[in-house]
Design brief:
Structural class: alpha/beta
Radius of gyration: 12 Å
CATH topology: Nucleotidyltransferase, domain 5
Number of helices: 5
CATH architecture: 2-Layer Sandwich
Helix content: 25-40%
Strand order of the largest sheet: 3-2-1-5-4
Largest sheet: 5 strands, mixed
Low-confidence stretches: none
């Protein structure tokens, strides 16, 4: 199962999410997009998921906080307890033994990040 994890600011646009996803490798073969639970209802994310034809997997913040990620954002670590929401969400939503196939990339306007993981499904 291939999952794109997305981290983003509340005012993110569909264009920024799309740009980050494309930079991480694109939507081909995705089974889902994932993010932290409190942002799973963001309109831009729902639009991206519809565009890609995949569901949104919401990952609880306390679960994200337990995962070490390859890349580290000091701001994200202070707020969420993990170095990258995108990487943590992708890994957790992709299931057991998931591995990152694309580490965190950031949109040009710095409002969206994306990472892609493959795993056995959750």
């Amino acid at each position: 199962m291939k999952v794109a994890g997305l981290g983003f600011k509340r005012d993110v646009t569909l264009a920024s999410l799309r740009e980050a996803l494309l930079a991480a490798g694109g939507a081909e073969g995705l089974a889902a997009v994932a993010t932290v639970s409190d942002k799973a209802d963001a309109e831009a994310l729902k639009q991206l998921a519809r565009e890609c034809g995949v569901p949104i997997k919401a990952v609880p913040a306390d679960v994200l906080a337990k995962l070490d990620t390859p890349t580290q954002s000091k701001l994200v670590a202070e707020k969420f307890g993990t170095g990258s929401v995108a990487e943590a969400a992708a890994l957790l939503a992709a299931g057991p033994r998931a591995r990152l196939i694309a580490t965190r990339v950031v949109s040009q306007d710095r409002t969206a990040t994306a990472a892609i993981a493959e795993g056995d499904g959750a």
